[in-house]
Amino acid sequence: MRKVSVIALLLILAAGYALADPALGGGRGLWRVQDARVEEDGALVFANRWMFNREAFGDVSVWRGPLYGLEMNYAPVPVVEVFGSLIGITDFKTGPNRLYYDWQGESFGAKLSVPFLPVFKLAGTWHWLMERSDYHFVEDGFMDGLATKGMSWRAVGAFRFAELYKTLPTLMFNYGQSFEENGNKFLGAGIEFPSNAVDLFVEITSEVPSDENFSAFFGKDYTPKARVAPGVRIKIPYFHLNGGVEIALNDSVPDYEAILGFSFVSPFPKMKPKPWGRLAGKVQDARSDLPLEAKITFPNRKIRPLQTDPATGVFFLQKAPVGVVVVQASKEGYIPDAVPMVITDRGFATHTFKLKPLVPYGTVAGRTYDIYSGKPLEAELSFTGTQIEPVESNPVTGFFRADNVPAGLVSVVAQKEGFFTEERVVEVEDGGVTKLNIGLASLDMKGVLKGKVVDRKTGEPLIATISFSKAQRPSIHTDSATGQFELELPVGSFEVKVESWGYLPQPSSFNINKGDTTTRIFEMVSKGMALTLKGVYFEFAKAKLRTESYIALMEAARIMKENPDIRVEIQGHTDAIGTDKANQKLSERRAYAVINFLVQYGGVDAKRLVAKGYGESKPIATNDTDEGRQLNRRVDFVILK
User: Fold this and answer.
1) OmpA-like domain spans which residues (predicted)?
2) Does 271 fall in a domain?
3) Other CB atoms within 10 A of residue 201 CB
4) Same domain, yes or no, for 433 and 457?
5) What pLDDT is recorded for position 387?
6) Does residue 515 share a domain with residue 552?
7) Mean pLDDT of successive 10-residue segments in the chain (641 residues)?
8) Do 385 and 412 contact (CB within 8 A), yes or no?
9) 479, 615: one domain
10) In this structure, is residue 572 part of a structural domain?
11) Strand 446-455 and strand 517-524: pairing?
12) What is the distance between the alpha carbons of residues 421 and 468, in angstroms, rounded to a whole number?
């Protein structure tokens, strides 16, 4: 019961600390249990430890136990540790005081560690104890399994939970066996808790002969050597004090053995740690701020390229060289971007890259619907002349959205079986959203447009192109021989522009009704074309229009309205009867009379009209006959532009 109480008290005191010094005989660990890690890279550690127990013979006390002298650990690289020790015994008696000691042998060993796995560490150790055969007290068995005799191996595992949270402990597990026929098997486990000043730990171990008849390490009649040993380590710079007690769990070992010692951590010259810092960042689309899967390179440093996470666009470099590091982000279809970043020792630098696309783009969004009922329609929308895949509008709402559409003028074609195909040309803004709603007409809701394009003056047929404003549908061409055209259109209102080479464009609008044929004759005019307004009459020797002239003048107004972009000169002409001066003034007044009529009754903008009188200076027939003079008394309609 007393042993159990002592163990419980020591276990309570051991909470919260860790150890990082040599085990007995060498090699980083606790007392008998080895750690899977090695000493710090380049560390050189010297230690001395004495294990002893007290026996009383009347008034005489005897303090006797093994002595570990001149222990040494050295870790040349982070995965290898070599160690050695002289092992002796001491015998100290009181009354009178007498100290006797002798060396029992030497031990050497090495450890190969795999410390790179997260939390879980692995190692293997090799140990060789060269025991002397003639030291004093050899018959008392002071070696007592402190180190397995001869050559032995040990498998070591450790769970370093401090990598998850700094105050968590490290668990250690050992299993080993001697290569000698009469050697022992070893099993041990320990727990340690780190702190900056004081380390506490506890371990439990057991040893049995290697013979197959001795398979259990605890609770058997052959009484394996089982112990539990708590310990404490006080840390002073370059110097550690060690203390603990080893308590027997059976009668095959002393009830207790005290452990005292010290270790000296040499400031052994070693390379200064290479400075490094951390570098992290993110790559986004400059327009949408969406993450991009991009390549990260370092033009001025020999660093392996990184790839950003496709879901988040984040990249991270755990160890970046200190100084100025140029970081470049690149992705196909985007303009690369590079920035210099200053990395400080153990510092953290970040940057967010916003890459711009090589081809500016925007978004086209809207809805498709039945143009007559207003109900949403599911339709396919394609983008002519681009690499954008067609999109489908939602069958319930009719809404659609297309991203990464090249900026500029883009033709959008909406198609649905049983409906007329519709085409729209929209201007897509860089980084913007262009709204587009397209109404589709059922194929049974249609009419016919037919007509002809001719020269206004001669009536000759023309080869012309008829295009629909707002790109409601593809342009059509007239027949090269007849100037005629004909096509089916959905019911609705349309605006067109008629164009023919050498002629001024002529806009027009019309309605298409279900089952009806709409006919249009387009009479084209050209710059410089002169049209004589036939049927325009004035009072004799006056500038007053006669009422029978109104039909011809309204036809002139119609030409102006059909060609809203033209500017016209109204020319007045007379015959040769009378003086030149009188005829000049009369022709000017008659030209102004025509303009006044066109403005007042024809609704023509006065800015589009110019009046000019030419008198008798430009006859088109002889003035010697009545018929000739009648032709010379005229009003011409001349296209200026």
Assistant:
1) 525-641
2) no
3) 26
4) no
5) 84
6) no
7) 39 34 83 88 80 71 74 87 85 72 82 91 91 64 59 93 90 91 86 90 88 63 80 90 90 84 75 86 90 95 94 94 95 93 93 90 92 91 89 93 89 91 87 90 87 88 86 80 90 85 82 88 81 75 82 82 84 84 86 87 86 84 80 80 78
8) no
9) no
10) yes
11) parallel
12) 14
Cα distance between residue 120 and residue 159, in whole Å: 5
472-501 burial, b at 16+ Cβ within 10 Å, e below that, comes to bbeeeebeeeebebeeebbbbebebebbbe
CA gap 595, 114 in Å, rounded: 104
The whole-angstrom separation of Cα 366 and Cα 569 is 47
User: Would residue 346 be called left, alpha or beta, if left means φ above 0 and alpha means ψ between -120 and 50 degrees?
Assistant: left
Q: Which of 424, 440, 456 is the last residue of a domain?
A: 440
What is the model's pTM?
Answer: 0.44
Same domain, 71 and 29: yes
Residues 6+ apart with CB under 8 A from 537: 545, 546, 548, 549
pLDDT of 14 reads 32
pLDDT, tens only, 589-616: 888 888 888 888 888 888 888 888 888 8
CATH number at residue 507: 2.60.40.1120
Tell me what pLDDT residue 613 has: 85
Whole-number pLDDT of residue 139: 56
CA distance 638 to 442: 46
Between CA 309 and CA 444 the distance in angstroms is 53
Phi, psi of 79, deg, nearest 5: -120, -5
pLDDT score, position 267: 62
Of the candidates 13, 18, 20, which has an alpha carbon nearest to the alpha carbon of residue 170? 18
Q: Look up the CATH number of the domain holding residue 429.
A: 2.60.40.10
Assess whether 128 and 254 both reside in one domain. yes
C-alpha–C-alpha distance, residues 594 and 572, integer Å: 9
| 66 found inside a domain | yes
Burial 204-240 (b: 16+ CB within 10 A, else e): bbbbbebeeeeeebeeeeeebbbbbbbbbbebeeeeb
Cα dist. 2→8, 244, 248, 556, 593 in Å? Answer: 10, 17, 12, 128, 136
Task: State the angle between helix axes of 550-562 and 580-600 in degrees (0 to 180), rounded to the nearest 10.
Answer: 60
Burial 564-573 (b: 16+ CB within 10 A, else e): eebbbebbbb
Which of 392, 418, 440 is the last residue before a domain boundary? 440
- Residue 194 CA to residue 161 CA, distance in Å, equals 11
Same domain, 9 and 139: yes
Q: Which residue has the tokens 């031990």?
A: 107
- Domain-located, residue 620: yes
CATH number, residue 244: 2.40.160.40
Residues 515 and 467 in one domain: yes
Same domain flag for 435 and 468: no
The structural domain count of the chain equals: 5
Among residues 348, 343, 313, the alpha carbon closest in space to that of 329 is found at 313
Place of tokens 């040499």: 266
End-to-end CA distance of the chain: 121
Q: Please, are residues 19 and 30 in contact by the beta-carbon 8 Å criterion?
A: yes
How far, CA to CA in Å, does 506 sit from each of 492, 495, 637? 21, 11, 17
By residue range, what is the domain housing residue 285? 276-355
Q: Is the Cβ–Cβ distance between 18 and 191 less than 8 Å?
A: no
Q: Find, among 176, 87, 211, 96, the residue nearest to 138 by Cα.
A: 87
**Where residue 632 sits, what CATH number does that domain have?**
3.30.1330.60
Q: C-alpha dihedral over 511, 512, 518, 521, to 10 degrees?
A: 50
What is the DSSP code (8-state) at residue 586? H
User: What is the phi/psi pair of residue 504, to 5°?
Assistant: -75, 140
